Backbone:
């Protein structure tokens, strides 16, 4: 069994304990042999690996969004409204909390939204510019608070992604 211990100096250490029953020659239980090992370094590496795996998964979602946009734009005969709606529908799955994410693109007097679109206080947006003139925006909202959210619930990579999408929309 693994245990988390708190030393007097406040440092957390992790230990693993294994025990084996000890019996006499007649098979009667007479005690146990236990060993305790400090696994603090292993636990730190496991936590680091979990964090890196999570971060890698987030980058994969972002790449999938960009690939999806590229595939949309490359479809023969697709209209601009279909591209814009397709982009809006791709965006939520690329954010950290896709189940509570919605998005909208406003381009001049037209707006394209996810089915679950609703404005909330948890918003991220980027302006869409064509030849330096603002012609619209891309907005992403979280529909509810999560325990991990602080003042800015969005990842810095999500900021880069929304800006990249907006720049490409302007092109």
Residues:
């Amino acid at each position: 069994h693994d245990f988390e211990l708190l030393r007097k100096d406040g440092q957390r250490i992790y230990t693993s304990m294994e025990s084996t029953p000890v019996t006499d020659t007649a098979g009667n239980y007479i005690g146990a042999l236990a060993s305790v090992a400090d696994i603090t370094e292993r636990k730190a590496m496991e936590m680091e690996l979990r964090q890196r795996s999570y971060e890698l998964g987030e980058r994969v979602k972002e790449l999938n969004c960009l690939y999806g946009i590229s595939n949309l734009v490359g479809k023969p005969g697709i209209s601009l409204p279909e591209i814009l709606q397709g982009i809006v529908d791709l965006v939520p799955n690329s954010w950290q909390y896709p189940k509570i994410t919605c998005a909208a693109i406003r381009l001049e007097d037209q707006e394209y939204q996810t089915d679950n679109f609703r404005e909330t206080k948890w918003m991220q947006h980027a302006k869409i510019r064509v030849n330096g003139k603002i012609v619209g925006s891309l907005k992403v909202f979280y529909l509810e608070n999560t325990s991990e959210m602080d003042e800015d619930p969005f990842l810095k990579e999500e900021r880069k992604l929304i800006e990249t999408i907006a720049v490409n929309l302007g092109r």
